[in-house]
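Workshop exercise sheet. Pairs work together: one partner reads the sequence aloud, the other fills in the structure field after running the prediction. Swap roles for the next sheet.
Pair: D.N. / O.F.
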Amino acid sequence: MKIKNNTNWRTDHLRAIITRVIREEFLPAKRKHVFIKIEYGKGGRYANRDGMCGGYAWYNSTNMVIKVAQDQIDAVDFAHTVAHESAHCRGLKHRDMKGKPDYMRCGNWRERYAWAAEILIEVKAIKSQTKPNAQLLRFQQTVAGIERWETKLKRATNALKKLRTRKRYYVNALAAKGMEVDQ
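Structure field:
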């Protein structure tokens, strides 16, 4: 199953509802091919009122589009809409669904999908849109570079000090044996 979420609603929350409905509506072999696009309703036939959802699907396919509101989503209606569009994907037309609360808003349809009300649907965390000041960023990188090179300089100074001490030892040791060494 693939979900393309073009809204600010959290995909993991929507996926929790979708997964349960798809598990009930599709055979296991078809589940992995289901593609659901979630987008905002833009009025007209798919106008969203009080968190109600709309959508459309292609008959005998695994593709559907679910339209949601920007300000709120009724989780029960969202689950019902996914089931309704899943029925279209399985080839059912509205005349085939007539009077069935699993797919039409009639009878006890809200009780049928009441489990969805327990699933919280939240808005995604908004990422910061501000870019850091380029000069400030370069300044911080320069300071970090200076600190790295100062550390390397200290290590090099200590290494040279040790090597010079070792050199003096060998010069004195070789001189004691009567050997002369160029310094």
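Discussion prompt: The chain has a mean pLDDT of 90. What would you look at next?
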